[in-house]
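=== RUN LOG ===
request id: a7f3
mode: sequence -> structure
chains: 1
length: 178
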Amino acid sequence: MVDPRVIDPEQELVEYGSLTEAEIAQVVRVLTGIRRWREAEQRLSLSSRDRMKLNETDMQALRFLVVAKNDGRLVTPGSLAEYLGISSASTTKLLDRLAAAGHIERAAHPTDRRALTIRITQQTHEQVRDTVGRTHARRFEVAVGMSPAERDTVIRFLDDLSQTAEAGATAGESESSP
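=== RESULT ===
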C-alpha cells in the first residue's frame, strides 16, 4: 500500500491534511508507478540472471567487465573485488564460477608478471549487451522523450528519493547497533 490514507489514517507519519484529494491521488499514482517500475526491474533482472544461470554478484561482475572492455581498461581480480566490495576469496570463487560457465577468460597481465587480467568472452559480452544493453537503450529513449525541464524534475525527484532510502538504511543500521 502506498496510500497514506490507508497506511497512516491518523497522520502520525505523513501529514497530508493540507492536500486535496486530487493531490493525494496524484502522489499515490507516483508512488504506485515507482513500485511498478521496481517490480518490473526485479523481474527483468531475475529473468536475465536465470537465463544466464547467474546470481546478482555474477551479473554485476559481468556488467563491470563489459564497461571495462568498452573503455579498453584491464581488470584484475583485485579491481573487481574492490568494485564488488567482496573479499579476495569470494572473488576467486566468483571467477572460478564464471570461467567454468565460459563467461570470462583469465590471462597474464601484460606488464605485471605476478598479476592476472580478467576479460569477458565475446559470446557473453554479446549476450549481456543484447539483454542489459537493449533495456538501457529503451530507458534512454524514454528519457530523450522528455523535455529538459521534465528531466531536471525527474533527476531532482530521484535524487531526493535516493537520499530517503539511504537515510532509512542508515537509521536501520543505527537501530540494530548495540
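=== NOTES ===
The chain has a mean pLDDT of 88.
The two ends are 32 Å apart (CA to CA).
=== END ===
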